[in-house]
Design a protein that fits this description.
The structure holds 2 protein chains of 2 kinds.
Chain A lengths: L7 H4 L2 H12 L10 H10 L7 H11 L3 H10 L11 E6 L2 H5 L2 H12 L12 E6 L11 E3 L2 E3 L4 H9 L3
Parallel strand pairs in A: 1-2
Antiparallel strand pairs in A: 1-3, 3-4
Chain B lengths: L1 E5 L2 E5 L5 H7 L23 E4 L6 E2 L10 E3 L3 H17 L14 H9 L22 E3 L9 H10 L4 E4 L6 E4 L12 H5 L5 E3 L12 E6 L8 E7 L2 E7 L12 H5 L2 H4 L8 E4 L2 E4 L2 H19 L4 E5 L5 H13 L5 E2 L31 E5 L3 H4 L1 H10 L4 E6 L11 E4 L5 H18 L12 H5 L6 H10 L5 E5 L1 H4 L4 H15 L2 E4 L6 H7 L19 H6 L4 E5 L3 H4 L3 H10 L2 E6 L12 E4 L8 E4 L5 E4 L12 H11 L10 H15 L36 H4 L26
Parallel strand pairs in B: 1-5, 15-16, 15-22, 17-18, 17-20, 18-19, 20-21, 22-23, 23-24
Antiparallel strand pairs in B: 1-2, 3-4, 3-5, 6-9, 7-8, 10-11, 11-12, 13-14, 13-24, 25-26
Classes of the chains: A alpha+beta, B alpha/beta.
Chain lengths: ~170, ~750
């Protein structure tokens, strides 16, 4: 809304801008809004894996949509982080299948061993826990995703080992 | 038309109508929260589930189009079960704080829960709690009460055009919020208070002041712009608590500008004048009406006796009632002077004899939303007539708008051409545009369907069409429904008379309607009642023209009567006005306020009521006469201004001041109109040449347009009131499937 907001072109690399423009080009000229998911994903990757307030504003202005419209998307999808996450983002599913298969016990592992609740980052900055909705792996419930890798049929022991193995 | 059946009633319906629309039209009540006739369909609350024959499950009435032969039951066991189940879900998280909720008693959730809720909750888990947000001085939030109907979000997106609220988060964590934490700055933000079906968004200044069932409702009309938005004034024990919209499709639909809704705090929350005041030996002393009125009458008489009628004048704001204008001009003309005016912001009176009977928009407000092409000249609708901006925004869904203005204005609709010019360039630019239109007409084969008035070719020969003019001309000459509209910025221009004539020419050449917005809430009434120096009531001829507002204020004047105006703030010449008023021999001011600037220069100050405290009539920019009654009595000894003027007339022994009600005054005005109104039929005349250069006064802030708005503390606390409006316009919300359009 005012001069303090830097344009997106100043915040991202030329390569990232080119990829965003490629997405925008896939849609009609007056529907730049359609590129918001991709734009946020590309922007996040270049910003320490999170979407800062100025970055979201810049994306909104670049796509010529209201800022709140970007904020809605960024808060809806769990793959967007609004705060700087730890080195590893662990997305733990707590939907019906996983819940029935014991995801509550897995949450407890995070509480006891790292002292963190969903949305928090461990003190050593290593692990950020996110509670997410179904990731379509009910057959392997309970499950979590670390980075972009699924880990299924978890037990408290296998989860503990998995977390300890992260650098 | 197709045949359907709802609850056993055979009905005709239009193909494409939704079930809920047909039911509403036939008074069949279907419960709902998210559906609103002026907003797009969201179908997210599921409250309106109904039983449709041959459907496997209940369907949302708001989103199910009718089909031929459809049989719908809104209260069958299946429908009722579905509605009750939805109600139970909605009440899972809604708090039971009705006794301390301002919405209690007028709450859609409360009403529907009475009909469809269970008496006991099966839900024993904790309810969710949502932190409240501070979204500014006008709207109180209690977000825990929100049922996520998203009406407020859709209002911003679709109607206001600048979207500030959104649904943030997901699932149970979803909440209505702004981007990070910021205030809602729209000039029509208050409408989300009415839209909210629960107590999540309520009128902040009216919070905890009264319960819905204690309040008395009086119909009224907003005095702050020439739209004349219809109001319901809600009062308790003689005090106005709040103002809400009165639905009128022809005027304000269901909306109000914040200025209409919150201005009453300028009357109820300000320093009111409770008794007549007299300046004696330089000191202000309270007095009674008899003494005050006698002093006023004596002062006026003395000015006439010592200096003649030409030294006496009257100035009224552009928001007085028609009755007040009529009595004021009768008083002045009775005293032998034609010096009366309400046009305190205008700078060019040279063409006033060419003006029509009263300022008119040329197109019905309701038809603004149908315009295919519109030319705005010096108009800032969003800040000047916010309700008209909402209408024109709807038109821009398919129509095109060209705006010519001497400063950057931020509309809430997209402009096809945004032509920025210097203040001195209005006339050359308009002339060039007229040339372009003329070229288009001449380029067509076959006979011309527009008669080009004599002298136009000669006038325009120095202003050939350039590319910009040609492209703008292409837009404004295309389509069936076209309008040329002059806004307040151009009206205040020092060559406004010629600007209007050129605008009239452009309209004629483009086959468009021609009209203007006007200042205040009742400029039209002022013209019709004769509160102008060159015409009497109903446009009657006067023996000689009196002085206009600018001349009265910028040149010496010995006696002045002020009605509901502070020329040092209302006029376009604040410094000169103050000097004139301070130098005048005698000034009497009729004002509601004890902190009126008149205390610096007047000799007698008489307390009068504001728009919620008097009966009267406003005439809007479509010539719609809207009569209203007072909602509450004026405080202290203050009286409606029409009564004060009437008694002044009696004291001055003038003829024809025997009225006992404002209706009698109105009948008098209307009688004059029937007799004479038709005589004023100005013809468009070609000017011989166009003046060059010109200036405009500084624009008025949206919340500084009259003495009442200026005193509304809540409006002054908004970012518009603080002049903190964004330096750059936020991105407009694109159109979605907006309802209520053909």
């Amino acid at each position: 809304m005012s001069a303090e907001t830097r344009p997106l072109t100043d915040m991202l690399s030329a390569d990232a801008m080119a990829r965003i423009d490629a997405w925008i080009a896939k849609f009609p000229a007056d529907r730049k809004r359609a590129a918001v998911l991709s734009a946020l994903r590309i922007a996040q990757a270049e910003n320490d894996n999170y979407l800062s307030e100025p970055l979201m504003k810049a994306v909104a202005d670049y796509l010529e949509i209201p800022r709140i419209a970007v904020f809605e998307v960024a808060t809806f999808y769990t793959m967007y982080h609004l705060e700087r996450p730890g080195r590893h983002v662990v997305s733990l599913c707590t939907n019906v299948s996983c819940m029935l298969a014991g995801s509550d016990r897995l949450l407890q592992v995070f509480r006891e061993q790292y002292g963190i609740e969903p949305g928090e980052t461990s003190a050593d900055g290593r692990i950020t826990l996110k509670e997410v909705e179904c990731m379509a792996a009910c057959g392997g419930a309970p499950m979590c995703e670390v980075g972009q890798q699924y880990h299924e049929n978890l037990t408290t022991e296998s989860l503990t080992t998995l977390l300890e193995g992260l650098d | 038309m197709i045949d359907i059946e709802i609850d056993g009633k055979k009905l005709k319906a239009e193909q494409g109508d939704m079930i809920i629309e047909v039911a509403d039209a036939h008074d069949i009540r279907i419960p709902r929260f998210c559906y609103h006739k002026k907003l797009s369909i969201a179908a997210n609350c599921r409250m309106c589930l109904v039983d449709v024959e041959n459907s496997r499950k209940p369907l949302p009435a708001c989103q199910t189009p009718v089909a031929d032969g459809m049989v719908i039951r809104t209260a069958s066991a299946l429908a009722r079960d579905a509605q009750k189940a939805v109600m139970e879900f909605l009440l899972i998280n809604h708090p039971l704080d009705c006794p301390i909720c301002d919405q209690g008693g007028e709450c859609e959730l409360q009403d529907v829960a009475m009909g469809f809720g269970r008496d006991v909750s099966r839900f024993t888990e904790g309810k969710r709690v949502v932190a409240d947000k501070n979204i500014g001085p006008l709207i109180a939030t209690d977000m825990t009460r929100c049922i996520q109907c998203t009406r407020c979000v859709r209002f911003g997106r679709e109607i206001a055009g600048i979207r500030e609220l959104g649904a943030v988060g997901r699932g149970e964590h979803m909440k209505i919020s702004t981007f990070i934490e910021q205030s809602v700055d729209s000039e029509v933000s208050g409408n989300i208070i009415d839209l909210c079906p629960v107590g999540a968004l309520t009128d902040k200044p009216a919070r905890f002041k009264a319960r819905a069932w204690e309040m008395r409702q009086t119909d009224s009309v907003s005095p702050h712009d020439c739209i004349g938005a219809n109001l319901h004034v809600h009062s308790v024990r003689g005090k106005v608590i709040r103002v809400v919209p009165q639905e009128n499709e022809a005027v304000n639909e269901v909306w109000l500008a914040d200025r209409d809704r919150f201005s009453h705090h300028g009357l109820s929350g300000s320093n009111r004048l409770l008794a007549p005041m007299l300046r004696q030996d330089g000191e202000w002393r309270e007095t009674d009406w008899e003494t005050g009125l006698a002093a006023a009458a004596e002062g006026l008489r003395k000015v006439v006796a010592n200096h003649g009628g030409v030294e006496l004048g009257a100035l009224a704001s552009a928001s007085c009632t028609t009755e007040e204008y009529y009595l004021l001009q009768k008083l002045m003309r009775g005293l032998g002077t034609q010096n009366i005016d309400h046009r305190l912001r205008l700078g060019d009176f040279s063409q006033q004899s060419h003006e029509p009977l009263y300022p008119e928009l040329g197109v019905d407000l309701a038809d603004l939303e149908l315009l295919e092409s519109t030319l705005l000249i010096g108009a800032d609708l969003r800040k000047e007539q916010p309700i008209a901006a909402l209408r024109l925004r709807k038109a821009t869904r398919s129509g095109r708008v060209v705006s010519i203005h001497d400063r950057q204005v931020y509309d809430n609709f997209d402009l096809t051409r945004d032509i920025r010019i210097d203040t001195g360039d209005y006339l050359p630019r308009l002339a060039s545009l007229a040339s372009a239109l003329l070229d288009r007409i001449r380029d067509q084969d076959g006979p011309l369907d527009v008669r080009v008035p004599d002298g136009v070719d000669q006038l325009l020969k120095d202003y050939p069409a350039d590319d910009e003019a040609a492209s703008a001309a292409e837009i404004i000459a295309t389509g069936e429904r076209k309008a040329v509209i002059v806004g307040l910025g151009a009206l205040e221009h020092s060559s406004a008379g010629h600007i209007k004539r050129m605008a009239g020419l452009i309209a004629r050449l483009a086959g468009a309607s021609y009209g203007q917005f006007s200042h205040g809430g009742n400029s039209a009434g002022a013209w019709l009642a004769g509160a102008i120096p060159h015409r009497g009531p109903a446009g009657a001829e006067v023996s000689s023209n009196g002085l206009d507002a600018k001349t009265m204020l910028t040149q010496q004047q010995q006696g002045l009567l002020l009605l509901n105006t502070e020329p040092g703030k209302d006029s376009a010449w604040p410094e000169a006005a103050r000097q004139t008023l301070e130098a005048a021999e005698f000034v009497v001011s009729l004002t509601p306020f004890a902190d009126d600037e008149a205390f610096d220069y007047a000799d007698v100050i008489l307390p009068v009521g504001g728009f919620t405290e008097t009966s009267g009539t406003y005439v809007n920019v479509n010539g719609r006469w809207q009569t209203f009654r007072g909602a509450v009595a004026p405080p202290g000894q203050a009286r409606p201004a029409w009564k004060v003027l009437r008694v002044l007339g009696n004291l001055l022994e003038l003829k024809g001041f025997e009225y006992v009600s404002s209706e009698e005054v109105l009948a008098n005005v209307q009688g004059r109109l029937d007799a004479e109104g038709e005589k004023v039929r100005p013809k468009w005349q070609c000017p011989e040449e166009l003046p060059t250069g010109g200036r405009v006064p500084d624009p008025q802030n949206i919340y500084a347009v009259d003495h009442i708005v200026r005193r509304s503390a809540v409006l002054q606390a908004t970012s518009d009131g603080q002049d903190r409006s964004a330096a750059k316009r936020p991105n407009l919300s694109p159109f979605h499937n907006i309802m209520g359009l053909p």
